[in-house]
Amino acid sequence: MSASSAPPVTDGRGGSNVVEQTPVPGFDLFRLKMRKEDCSTASIAAFENNYKSLVNGETGMIPEDAITPASGLPTYESTRGAAARLPGKGIAELLSQTAVVKLNGGLGTSMGLEKAKSLLPVRGNDTTFLDLIGRQVEHMRKQHGAPNLKFLLMNSFSTSDDTKEFFGGRFPQLQWTELMQNMSPKIDKATKTPAVFEENPKLEWCPPGHGDIYPALLGTGTLDRLLEDGVKYLFVSNSDNLGATLDLDLLAYFANESGAPFLMEVCERTESDKKGGHLAVSNATNGLILRESAQCPKEDEGSFQDVTKHRFFNTNNLWVNLVHLKATMSKHGGLLPLPTIFNEKTVDPRNKKTPKVYQLETAMGSAIACFDKAGAVCVPRTRFAPVKTCADLLVLRSDAYTTLPDSRVQLTPCVAKSPVVKLDDDHYKLVDKLDALVEAAPSLSACTKLTVQGPVRFVAGTTLKGSCRIVNHGADAVTLPPKTYVDCDIDLTASATATADNDAAVPSKARATGCFGCLFR
């Protein structure tokens, strides 16, 4: 189970850039285990730093009196025109100094997937996340005369083979580089030693979170190779966030105007975001930090969830200056001292009777605290459109979104805000169940809210406008008759044949104003 495709540790995998840390008592067994599996020196150093946090009893708590709300951030609108203001050869030269990295290690198990989540069809003609990403890279290279724009995918051992097969079949000419995510040992909770599970030794290991991108870049030699190729700027985002495209004005702003070594795209928090993490300013350093819910003391939860006080959350769209990244990692002995996330699980996650373990992770956005003069820019929600649930997927497959000629996916012009969709988890949580019940996505371009309870089948020719609620309390799926529904509350329970007529739809006083250009485009 190699941690990457780079040479073994005895040949200096990341070793020249990593300074030995003060030995942590009890870590020798982990170091030995990781070296046997050919883990890079950089990944071992990062895991040792996390292990030290565990044995030292660090909680990572950030109390309210230790921070100040972030404010006065530059806006997305203020970056417009930055590409046009570039000196010299302009955008082509800047793109030759840029690399795009997509995090592609997830399987989407919460949606019932067994392959890379990025291989899930999200638009018509079985177009997947990776189709759209690959076409975007090809378009950017061709449109701007920048064949040297680097494209990397950070894969895990679970997604590597499927991803290579996909690009070999659909994009055989596309140049890209695989950055392999490392693996970390699970820790026996009782003994703080490496977990042992002889029935399935693979379960003794776990992914270290997307904060692993930094030791992966260093340990595989990718960071040095990029710098040698003249690459200075990295744009990193999740592969399931189709809003996270390589925005040329943001790139030019980051590289030429911001003066920041690290730039985070943030969005304004709403009530639906109040339990998620937020951006803040550390009173100790006067620099930006992230505070996650697990880092908030119970007595400060009120302030944590006050979206008018702590206004911004991390989109996980990050811009990194590679020169500063290498210097900062060198300053800290070959690693970034990221806060550790402690996950308590069982060694076999499917068997709660197996021994309890710790899985240690880090988040890449928390690196904002490691860079002097790191910055953030407030972007619109259109740059944060991840697909985490089947409800998200249904909206993306509908006419609420459109695919542009350059393969970017955006809200259809007449749609001011993505509709809020709530689907019954008992019937729509998994992709195969969604596909079985939704033969064709309904038109949602004029829909503001859709709630579905029970097994309801959607077929072609169905249009939903305004706020719609559709219920079937029966056990068998019932087809919603294909027609236009406006601000309706429909109960299909009594009709096995679903012969709904005008009496089945109860319109409210407010009616949607349809956009015919979108409904019949």
From TrEMBL:
Q: Which GO terms describe its molecular function?
A: UTP:glucose-1-phosphate uridylyltransferase activity
What domain of life does the native source organism fall in?
Answer: Eukaryota
Q: Which residues does the record give as substrate binding sites?
A: 210
**UniProt record, GO biological process:** UDP-alpha-D-glucose metabolic process
Q: Membrane-spanning regions, if any? A: none
Residues annotated as binding UTP are: 117, 181, 209, 240, 388
Could you say which enzyme class this protein belongs to?
transferase
Record region (Disordered): 1-20
Catalytic reaction equation(s): alpha-D-glucose 1-phosphate + UTP + H(+) = UDP-alpha-D-glucose + diphosphate
Q: Which UniProt keywords are given for this protein, alphabetically ordered?
A: Nucleotidyltransferase, Transferase
What is the E.C. number?
2.7.7.9
Homology family: Belongs to the UDPGP type 1 family.
Query: What is the name attached to this protein's record?
Result: UTP--glucose-1-phosphate uridylyltransferase
Which organism is this entry from? Pycnococcus provasolii
